[in-house]
Queue: 2 jobs
Job 1
Amino acid sequence: MVNVGHTVLFSADQIKDRVAGLAAEIRRGYPADTTLHLVAVLKGGFVFLADLARVLDCPVTIDFVAVSSYGAATRSTGPVRLRQDLHLPVRDRDVLIVEDIIDTGETLAWILEHLRAGGPRSLRTVAFLDKPSRRTLDIQADYVGFTIPDRFVVGYGLDHDERLRNLPYVAVLEPSDVTPTGETMTNTAPELSDPTS
Ligand code: PRP
């Protein structure tokens, strides 16, 4: 199985504390009567969205956009592809894009342009993780959970070949955790535990 125990980057408790801090920071940045329109970027953003939405002390509405820029490998591979568009109009809403990670910045740049065309009242971004050393575009999120080095991370919504999104913590995926064919060995949740919590 994947030995993720020794490579935990952020424990479930650390994540919980940081998300609460982010929510307070975000809330302070808007007028008191604001309803935030959270637009999560699927698939990776679903876990962060669920946690953030529940600790934000204001009314929220929620929508999703699904894009993809990665293949099965551990590196970004190409242009952004729209897989599922928004269901709700963003016009005159205070939109907060909810991303799990900013890597090259290509996805965020594409989504910002896509949403800006819909005429939102305001448009900001929160990224759970930021990997600035990988940036190919001059772009950054308004709010960032954790800044991380150039390592391939999994868990808390982030996958390797569609697995490991369900880890309640963030771990670094080491090359030894992947088979020669590029598959992760397993992500059977009951066998994985967070030794730091
Ligand atoms: C990941 C992540 C971001 C994007 C960041 O999505 O969720 O949306 O890549 O990379 P970038 O800054 O280099 O554009 P991915 O395409 O892996 O899809 P997923 O969320 O469905 O796993």
Job 2
Amino acid sequence: KNSFPQRVAVIGTGYVGLGTAGLLAHIGYQVTGIDIDPAKIAQLQRGEVPIHEPGLEGLLAGQEERLTWTTSYEAITEADVIFICVGTPPGPDGTPNLNYVTSAAASLAPFLNGHAQIIVNKSTVPIGTGDYVQRLLEDHSPNFDETRHRVVSNPEFLREGTALSDSLYPDRLVMGGHPDAVDYLARLYAPLIEQTFVPPAGTPRPDSYTRPAVVRTTLQSAEMIKYAANAFLALKISFANEIGGLCERVGADIQEVSTGIGFDGRIGHRFLQAGLGWGGSCFGKDTQGLISAGREHSYAMPILQAAIDVNYRQRQLVIDKLIRHLKSLKGKRITVLGMAFKPNTDDLRDAPAHDLIARLTQLGAVVTAHDPVAMPRASREWAHLTYTAAADAATALVRADAVIIATEWDEYVQLNWSELVGTMRRPLIIDARNILRDALPAQVEQIGREAAHYQPEQ
Ligand code: UGA
């Protein structure tokens, strides 16, 4: 039966699961999305998408015939390929929590049957988890047969905010595991590898794009590739921030410096944007995850530790800048523009704005915050913080002593800054994402660049 995959089950309906399910349905497979959260499944059945991700709603909406949602694991019986896309949130010591992976594997195992079924792990998991999942399947499935049921690691490299085009037009597909199982998964991905699918409306194939590299590895290497890729990107950002700090002190401009070094093909321009550093659910967790893995083997990873330290120092440097200008923050009205950890998402995990708001209120400031999409989520998830949510960016600026741009939403670039600065009590902009550059009124402090035309108060 089935030398060619047809039916797919996707466990987990977060960014990775929803993207994977939508993509595979679009390519033409019969997909069942499974989640243990009945509220999320009910939402998806009604055609609502539980997260904010550009284009996702459109991609899922066209697929009713090929894409169904359920809380029951029974669909596993029919599936040729089963994707595990559940979260691995960091525990208190920074190591990823594998509870969801463990329970997904244990729950799917009883439904494995006699035909070849590949279990693909897309969640970011510590090296060795693939083998662990295989053992769980063995323990929980009466039908387990290691020649038919194989685990493949197929890490996901999509970014939030651009998840769809990242998964439709990836740089590479990494597949680690037994060669037969990898071949089978490669057959499932054939339309993606050959780029023979019709691009969905709203996510056209970029002109320069041809097709992804296919990287076949062992299970362990694939698992390591995911961590190493994220750690390297995190490193690049922290490197830019570390050099940026020195730039400021010696009168250089980090934006010019990044541009200059990025033209060296060995370095590249991407992920050298200095500013508030990284947030989100991945870079912090994955750098910590590697350090913890090292520790288990008594192996120190000083470069990664330094990247983490530099990253979180950036948040304090922004506060230091404010204090330099305003002396005391007590009673000062500070506006934070942008709460999500990056634009085009409402994800608040490890967002720099969180730490800024917390620190500002601790120092006695009165904080107003705004975000184009994340405010409803913030009112639930950041209920412990004290700030006033502003209806729009312009209102947020009225009578402010300073504004910090914490997320580089396009809408903030487009604001009529010269006019809005006039409504502030003091014209102080801390452009912590370096987005305003030249189209500026005259009082901007950037990160990694000497105060730009700042006019001290009289
Ligand atoms: C990251 C990786 O980029 C993805 O390849 C990976 O699949 C994903 O983690 C994951 O492991 O799931 P993501 O966290 O969604 O994706 O977002 P990024 O675009 O990588 O941004 C991360 C953070 O770095 C953001 O806070 C962003 O503002 C910051 N950043 C990014 C910089 O400060 N400077 C830069 O030059 C680039």
